[in-house]
Design brief:
The protein is of the alpha/beta class. Helix 9 runs antiparallel to helix 10 and helix 16 runs antiparallel to helix 28. The structure holds a DNA duplex.
Length: about 775
Amino acid sequence: MSLNPMQRRAVMATEGPLLVLAGAGSGKTTVLIRRIENLMRFGRGSDCNLVPRDINEDMIKALKTRTGRCEEYAQVLPVSPWQILAITFTNKAADELKARLEASLGEAALDIWACTFHSACVRMLRRDADRLGFSKSFTIYDTQDSVSLIKQIFKDKNIDDKKLSPKQILSVISKAKTANRTAEEYYREAQSSDDLLMQKVSEIYSEYSRRMKSADSMDFDDLLLYTVRLLQGNEDVRDYWQNRFKYVLIDEYQDTNFLQYLFASLVTGRENNICVVGDDDQSIYKFRGATIENILGFEDNYENCRTIRLEQNYRSTGHILAAANSVISNNYGRKGKNLWTEKGNGELVTVYCCDNERDEGQYVAGQIIAMNRDGDNFRDFAVLYRMNAQSNSIEYALKRNGIPYRIIGGTRFFDRAEVKDVLAYMNVSAAPNDDLRLERIINMPPRGIGAKTVDTARSIAVQTGKSLFEIISAADRYPELARSATRLMQFGEMIRSFAAFAENNGTDAIYDEIVEKTGYLTYLEGKNTPEDTARAENVKELKTSVLTYMEESGDETLDGYLANIALYTDLDNYDSDSDAVTLMTVHSSKGLEFKTVFVTGMEETIFPGMSSLTSQEDLEEERRLCYVAITRAKTKLFLLCARQRLIFGRTNANRVSRFIDEIPEEHVHKYIPRGYGYSEPGFDYYSPRTAGDYYEYTPVKTRTEQRTQERSAYTPPARKAAPAQITLEPGERVTHKAFGPGTVSKLTPMGGDFLVEINFDGAGPKKLMLRAAGQFITK
DNA sequence: CGCACCACAATTTTT
DNA sequence: TTGTGGTGCG
């Protein structure tokens, strides 16, 4: 009832292939949810001729009074929850979907597969990975791991990494995988071609694959590639999943790659009940292999496809939408769509040209303070930029003005060296043959096993075709290793003990065991530098993550935990509850919305970026990115540029972004000095130094300056309804599951939650959000 | 083993 | 400007 006609059509068209072109802010998620509800309640009732088309409220009422029943008449083969597969791109989106489905459908929602491509693949592979030469408890490599592995291969094969960078090789390999080419196939192809680079890469790809297999590991691309192969090569497996999933839904379809397209078509059964939702104008991940052709060609790939456009925007006011529409209309390769709103024009878009990047920051800070004074919360603001390097000047200004902010992106908690070390121990305990991770920890904390020893051991491993773990476990059998044999075997013994311990203990106990027996924490704490103290904190924080996972999933297994965090990103950590301004790249902002948005660095060579200026295709992607940025704003939009900008240690004078000039004048308020950049002379020049814009200066540190000191670590994602609430009072003695006993020192209400400060006897003072941490605290 | 020093390069990154 | 990776020395 609350849907508009187009949304309703998208919900009710249950049968066959359906393409939903959903503009920004058009209620896409609502449609997805209502569609699933509809499937479960009425099956195909809304999309077949067994139920009268023109059924209306009166008829329903009549039916109800006459028979006392109603719903049954409109029901045709209602769908069971486990027959639905809903794929999203981020864990966050998946969690949100799950939460909203659970809210409206209750328990039943738990059986719906609402997950990311990658986690869907993991679930399928856990069932049948043995058919592909992996164990069912294979581990997952992240990009860093993959790079390290390539580097190792370079070393072993004496390849000069000056000429070919590991990252480049990896991206070629990734492209090959995305094009559904296994190492063997790619190798064969390369042999019969005269492309020397390809031949070289194919050798590395083969070796990489071999080592991944012997480490029983898959990288992100492998998860998809192997799943696709599993489905393509095994009729019984394919039948199993196709019979199971009667209805497949895919969100953000514009960002899928070729493999994901294959995956989607392979899990979709004969009835072709596949519904994809996306917006070709928001396709911004071409550089990661996304092919916009998937969405542009959907109607050709699926016969009898129906297409529905959602163009009514519920997010932004008129001028903002007009700006977005006119910018994107300069692109050629698009389906064509025009957003409209019933909201009225709203405020004009502000275009403001600053002197330099510091003024830009100050302008943003000044505006935020003014609007905050008028009643806006800090969480109503987002500052967007094209690249992370731009964040520093903004941070500086915000800090200086005492504005709370949070940065999305940058180094993930799970990417930090110390966290990866402990995780490597956990991984190796589950899979000792993981050479890469074994090497990572073999001398961490230092235990007298030097680089030379490891080199020797590894070369023996390569020669004998055994794993590093096997070599070091029998180190006394190799005379070359005689000198460190004892230490090596001791280490091997320790790993074996962890593996045995892991057999019959929960993940939290395994964590404790590892941290204790390796002395890793003691080692960090003993160094007594602020950096190492911060690292120690992060290691302790990891326990919180373990406990949170166990709590939320009810899964105690090490494999489960490791797979879960391998697929976890920083964005999942984003908690909109705390009252702070959000800083992030335009890419990370996709899918979010804010009352007020500042887009900084609207200059040629920044946005559009330097390397997009030469290619039409890349420029169009930048334009889509700009479209994404603009459509994040609900009521106020600021587009900022600076006539001089210090970036990467150099000062540049850039012209105003062409995207600004693509917005018709009637939608903007321009403050640009005369004779500057592209613009017409004659606009007002507003000095950014207006009284009241500046605030007392206090020395502050920006992110990069304080990285190691204040890494805010891992915050458990705020999911589901709050667990049983605990009430605390200052002065009270409590015990935290990870940090031990302590005294409550302070309670501060914050965003419907409480910030609790506890002085832990062992771990020192800590600030925790009650809603998230309460479950770990006992009195 | 750990540190100091230097050269080098830097879009964007849902997994 | 900044982080990173390599090298060489005590």
